[in-house]
User: Fold these one by one.
Assistant:
Number 1:
Amino acid sequence: MHIYPSDDGSIASADGFPFFSLASFAILGAGKTKVLQLHHKAAKLLVYLLRPGGCDGGGSFAMLRRLIKALETYMHPSNNGYWTRRLSQLVASLCEYFAERVRRERLLPIGAYADVRLGEADVRAFAQLLLPVALQGLFSKSGSVTLQSCTALKHLSFLAPDDALQPLLERVYQALTTLTEVHQTSAALEALAAVIFPLIRAGNFDAGAKHIADLMELTLTGIDANDPHKTWATLRFLTALLSGLPLVPIPPDAPVPPGVDPARHAVARDVTDAFADWTHRFLDQTFTFIANQNTPLSAATDGGAEADGGKTDSETRTSEYFFHCTLEVFFSQLGDALFEAALGKVAHFTLTNLLEKTQQAHLGVMLGAIAAVQPARVVERIIPAVLRVLLNTPQDRELPRLRTPRTPQRRPSAAPGAVSALTGADPAPGDALPSPTWGAPGAAAAEVELAHLSEKEVRYLLNVVRFVAEAAAAPVLRLSAQLVPCIDLALLVEERPGVVSAMASKAANKLVRALCHGLLTCRPADARCVPPGRWSDRAWQARHYEDWGRVVPMGAADVAWRVPTREGLQLAADLAARYLDRPLAALQSFVAQGGASPLAAARGGAPRGEGAPAAGGGGAGRGASRGAEPRG
C-alpha cells in the first residue's frame, strides 16, 4: 500500500470537500488501483485493536471513549459542515465492523481464543458509548448523516437491543406524534425501517411485539400525496416491516403452543387481532393517495408549471416504485381471509371510479401486485365485470346496463353532413354515433358491440384489463374469446366521424403488448417470508410470531415459477399474427416506395418533401390523412 500526503487539500472527496488528511491507494497488480476510504480503514483498525475487558480500564477502549466524546459536539444536529459526513461515516463504520467482529467470534467454539474474544460486558459498553452519537445524528440537517446514523443504530440494535431500542423508540414516538417538529418524522421513519427486524424478532427484544400495533397505526398518516419524501420513508418502513411480519390472525380457538410463554402468546394474539382493521385503513389511505395524484410538471404547458402544483416525473416514478415494493409484499403476506377482503376493496375502488391518466399508473401498480399473488382469483373478480361494461351482446341489449360513473348516455351528435366510416350512412340529427360491432366468423348472429362509452372510459377500462393481464395472463386465456373482439372494437373507436381515436387505439395496443408479455415470461409463484407448505400449516399459523423478523435465506429458498403454457404461447402467436402482420406490411410498403405511404401511392401522391402538401396546410386535414383505419 502506498500512502500519499494530501498537501493543501488538493485531493477532493466525492461531495466536493477535501480530505484534509491522507489519501491511500492500494496497488492491486496489473495496473489496477483501488482508492480506499480512510474512515472505513480507520474504523476497522480501531475495532480490532480493542481488547476484552478494556471497558473497565485503560488501553485502546479508553482511547476510543475519548475519541467518541470529542465527536459528540460535531455530530449535533445544529453543527453542520463539511466534517459532518465523514464523521457520521466513521461512526457507522465503527458499528459495522464491531458487529462483524462480534458475529465472527460468536461462531467460534466455546472457550477458544478467550484472550482476544470480546465478552457481553464489552459489547454493552461499546453500544452505550456509540448510542448517544448515533441518536444525535439521526435528526441532523444532512440527509446523508441521517442515513449513516440509521446504519449505526441497526447494528447497535442487534448487538445490544435492550440498551439501544428503548431510547430510540422514545424519540420515534415523539417524532411521530409531535405537531411542532414535523421535520423529524421522516428521520424517525428511516430509523424504524433500519431497526424493525431486531425490534420484532423473537428472542431479541422482549418488549418489541407490544410496539408493533402502535407503530403500524402511527405511520399510516405518513402516506400523504402532498409530502412525497415522507411517503417514501413510510413505504420503506412498511416494506421492511411486512417482509418479516405475516398478516395472519391467530385463530381464536388456537391453544397456547407447548413451550411458549402464555403472556407472549397473548400479546401476539392482540397484535394479530388488529391486522384486519389496519389492512382496511392502509388500503383506504392508498386509495386517497391515488385519487389525489396531480399531473406531472412535464405534462403541463407554459414552461412546465401548473397552477395546481403538479409533481415532477421523477417524483411520480419514485412513488410508483415504492408503492410497487410495498404493495407486492403487503398482498403476499395477507392471510386468505384478509386477502379476500382486500380484493373486494380493490375491485370496488377500481370499478366505481374513473381515474385520470396520471392516477392510473398507481392503480396499475396496485392491480399488478394483487394479481401476482392469486392470479386466477383476481381475474375472476375484476375482468368479467370490466368486459360486461365494455361489451354489449344481443342478450344484454334488452337488460339494464351496469355503467361506470360519468358514463354519458348518448354520444355527441355528429356534425351536419358527416358520414360515418363504419356504416357509410348519414347520421340523423341528434343520433349517437354508432358503436363498432364484431362478429365471429360463421356466427354473425352472435355479434357483440362496444358499449356507448366516452373515450376516457374506454381507455380506463382497457387499462384495467391490461394491468391485471400483464401479471395474470394465464387465467385470462379462458376470456380470450371476449378480449379479442374487445380489442378489435377499441381499434375502431372514433373521436369524431372518420377519425380513429388515438386514446382508445393506444390503450388497445398496450393491452396486446401486455398480454404477449404476460404469456411469454416466467414469474415467481410465491414471495412470502416462509415456504408455501409452512404457510398453509395450521399449527404454524397458531405460533407464526416465532418467525417474525426472519426471512428465508437466499441459499435455502425453494422458488416455484409460473412458466408459459402451450395454450398461452399459441394465444401470443395468434395475437402477434392478428395485430402485427398488417402494420409490418404497411411499413415494408412504405420503405419500398421510398417513404410514400400506401394511401398516397394509391392516389398518385409523392413522398413528403417532393411536392406533397404539408400536413394542415390547405389540403387534407387530420381526418383525411388518418382515415378510419384501425391502428395496429
Number 2:
Amino acid sequence: MVKKIGLYIVLICTLFSINSEGRQFGNYTSTTELEQQMEKTSGLDRIEFLLSLSSRYNRTDISRSKELAAEAHSISLAFDNDSLIAESNLQLGYISLLEEKSAEALDYYVAARNIFRDFGIEQREAITLAQIGLLYSELSQYPESLKNYYEALSIFREIKAGKGELDVLLRISMVMGDRKEYASALAFAEQTIELASELDNKLVLTMSLSQAASLYEDQNNLDEAISYNEQAMLVLQEMGSSHGAVAVMMNLSELYEGKADYSKASSMNNEVYEFAKANQNNVLLIESMFNAAKIMHAQKEYKSSNDTLFSALGLIDESGLKIMAFKFQQLLAENYLNIGKYDLAIIYAKQAIESADNLGDLIKAEEALLNLIDVYTKKEDYSSAFKAQQKLTSIRDSLYSKENAEQIAKMQARYEISEKEKEIELLQSENKRRASVQLFLGLGFLLVLLAGFFIVRSQMLKVKSSKSELEVSNLKRKELQKDLEFKNKQLTTQSLNMVQKNEMMEEMKEKVENLKKEGSSRELNNLSQLVDYSFNLDEDWKQFQMHFEEVHSGFYHVLKDRYPDLTPNEMRLSALVKLNLTIKEMAAILGISPDSVKTARYRLRKKLDMNTEDNLAEFMLQLEKDSLEVL
C-alpha cells in the first residue's frame, strides 16, 4: 500500500504554517487584491503584506515567494525590528527547506530561533524548533530531529498550546516509525489521538488514526490497521469530508485484499468506484478499476481482470492520463503470462517498458523488464531473455549510480549542516568571550584597543589557516569518496556477474541433463563436465578477492589470523556473508545448492565458536571493524 506520510507532513506544515498567526489578511480574498494593497503601503506595514504573500506563493511560485521574503527581511533590517527580522528569517528558512537547501535553511532557522528566545516569544520559538526538527528528519538525522521536537514539545506544554503539542506529537511518532521503533511510535500516535479527541481537533485526529494504521500495517498487523482506518473513516464522515473518507476506503480495500478477504475488498472498492463515477473524478475512477482488476487477479480470475484493465485503459486514453498506464500494462502482461498467452504477455510487457521510459522511471523499467524476462523464459526464448537481461543490467547500473548520487547529496547536506553547527558554536563561543572581555574595559581604552587588535589579527590568521586546511581536507575527502565509490561498484558488478554466470551455467547444465536422458552421447557428457568445471574456475574468485580486499582491506588478514583453521572455501563464504548476500545468491556464486550453503554456514559458525543466537553477518561486520582498528 502507498504510504501517506508525505501527505501528513504537508498537512502538518499547513496546520502549523509559519503564516498562521497575524498574516492571514482575511479581507483580501485573492492574491491579486493583496498584491494591489501591498503596493499602497510602505515601511513596516509593507512587511506584513510581503510575508503573507510569500506564504501564499511558496507552493506555486517559489522564486516569487523567496523574492518577497527577502524584501521583507531587508526592510526589517533597515528598521531594526527584531521580531519582523525573526519572522522573515523563519519564512526564508521554510522556503530554503522547500528548495532542499538544508544548510541555508538551518542558518535562517537558528537566527529566527535565537531572536524569538531572546525576546521571550515562546510560541514562535517552539514553531521554529519544530521546523528544525523537520529539517533533520528529512536528512535522516533522527537524534537531532527528536532533540528539537522534544524541546518544542516542552515549550508548547508549558504555554498550554494544544495545537502545537498535537503537531509535534504526531511528528515524533513519524520519526519513531522511520526508525522502526514501533512501540514508541504507536505510544506517541495514541497520545496524539487522545489529545486530538480532547481538543475536538478532527483533522489531526484522522491523521493520527491513519498514522497508527500505517504503523500496524508496517508490522503486518492488518486487523489493527483495518480497525484504525475504520475509525479514521468515521471521523472523516462526521466532518463531511467525503473525499477523505473515500481515500481511507481505498486503503481498507487494499488491506482486505492483503488478508485475502476478497468479498470485503471488492465491497469497499465498489463504493469508491460509485463515488468516483458520481463525482466524475476520472483519476479516482481509474484507480478503483485497477484495484478491482488486482482483486480479480488475486483470485485467478484473469479474463475478468483483463476486461476491467482494458476498460480502464480506454478511460485513460480519453482523459489524457497516460502517466497512469504503466501498472495496467504490467498487470495485463502478468495475467496473460498466467494463462499461457506468451505473445500477448510480451506485447504488454514491452508497452510497460515504453511507458516507464517515457516517465524516466528506472525502477518501473526494472519491474517491467523482470516481467518480460519471465515471459521469455517461460516461452523458452532464451536469446530474447538474454537481451532483456542485458538491458536490465544496464538499468540497474544506472539505478546504482543514481542511488549513489542521492547518497552523496545527502551526505553533502549533512556535512554542510555539521559545518554550520560548528560555525554556530564558534559564534556562540566568540560572543561569550567578547562578553568577558567587556568586563575589563575599565583597565583602559588603549589596552582594550591593543588587545582587540591582536585578537582580531589572531582570528584572521586562524580563519585563513583553517580555510586552507579545510580545502585540502575536502579535496582528499572527495578523492577518497570517488575511489571508494568506484571500488564498491566494481565489487557489486563482480558479484552480480558471478551470480548471473553461474545461474546461466546451472540452467545450461539442466538442459544438457535433459538432453542426455533423451539420448546420451559422449559430446553431451563432455559438455556437462565442462559446465561443472566452469563452476570451479578460480579466475572470477581472484578478481572478486582483489576487489573485495581493496574495499574491505585487512578483513581477510584478521579472519585468518584469528581462525587459522579456516579453509579457502570458508574464507570465500565469509566474504559473501560480509557482503550480506542471500542464500540463493551465495549458492549461485559458489556453484552449490542453497542447502549446501546452509550446511557450510553451519560449519563455519562452529569453527568461529559462535553461539546459536549470534548473527553471522553482524559477526563479520564486527570483524571488519576490528580489522580497521588494526590498520
